[in-house]
Amino acid sequence: MASTVGDLMTTHVVAAFEEAGFKRLAVSLRMNGVSALPVLDADQRVVGVVSESDLLAWLAAPNLDEAVFAGDMPEEPVARDLMSTPAITITEGASPREAAERMRRHRIKRLPVVTEDGKLLGIVSRSDLLRVYFVSDGELRETVEREVVRGEFDLPGVAVSVERGVVTLDGTVPVRSLIPRLIRAVRRVEGVVRVHDRLAYDTDDLVPLQRAR
């Protein structure tokens, strides 16, 4: 069965409430060896993320001392003042591929995992998503053969080999239209990096029908 974000996430998450002060945030980041913290409201819903970059941006603000003295900026900002919002999150039922695409699109390293109403469940990182590839070539070959080639398609004439996560399919299938379907199914197997196709077919069922006269 395909993994979900909920299967891969870390559930022991360090988070901060909106009222947490600058110093407390800095200490928490350092002590826990993380670069960002989810920020929660009173109902433990994720409302933002505060990172080392957010803290440094506040410290580097021009004329900081004058602004604090004039009351234009707080003497010690809290997470609510510093966080990036809205938070980029994902639900536990999402696929690793969805999570990876969201990280790529927003250029972030981790995602808070939330319930449908936004409450924090865990966090998933890039290294968590890569765990689906921590499988040996032998195990991957057995899975592709059992679940796809023999199971879903029942193709005794197709042989499977795997090297470094790259699956090669050799042999003959009854009809040509099976080949793209088979390749798509193999690509969906967790741990597959790429699929090489060396397949032949007995019948070309993709030839256009002759135009009626």
Automatic annotation (TrEMBL):
Domain BON: 136-203
InterPro entries: BON_dom, CBS_dom, CBS_dom_sf, Diverse_CBS-Domain, UCP036990_CBS_BON
Coiled-coil portions: none
Signal peptide boundaries: none
Keywords: CBS domain
UniProt-listed Gene3D superfamilies: 3.30.1340.30, CBS-domain (3.10.580.10)
Transmembrane segments: none
UniProt cross-references to SMART domains, sorted A to Z: CBS
Residues in CBS domain copies: 9-66, 83-140
PANTHER family: CBS DOMAIN-CONTAINING PROTEIN CBSX3, MITOCHONDRIAL (PTHR43080), OS02G0818000 PROTEIN (PTHR43080:SF29)
Protein name in the entry: CBS
